[in-house]
Write a structure and sequence with these properties.
about 140 residues, alpha/beta, Nucleotidyltransferase, domain 5, 4 helices
Length: about 140
Amino acid sequence: MKILAIDPGTKRIGLAASDALHLTTRLLPVLQVSGLGRSVQEIASLIAEEEFRKVVVGLPLNMDGSEGKAALGARDLVKRLKKELQNKKISCEVEVWDERLTSFEAEQRARQQGVAKAKAKAFLDSLAAEVLLEDYLASHPEK
């Protein structure tokens, strides 16, 4: 079962995917946010096209575990995505996953790879989604 990971943001949405056996992950192009409704439609189309059966959306919790404005935005994205998938009759499970420190780890990886700062922002969003996906897969070895 292929899994799509989403690192939600207000300007860009980072995306990463697993293969069906969960042996590899890959970065996908970043979505530029031009309204949540349009972004949800684009994600739903990608899910149908790539035949993802699970979506893991990063939940940006505060360090104390509480939810702030960004977490509410992620939950809204999840709610709208579930509705869009249902309306399009696309069978795909959607869940949230704690994404604390994924951006920090993505920045560390980008530095190690020598990614230029000018190129880094969009790259970091998808890299954060890949870190999220790797963390999720490591926590769910049976899936």
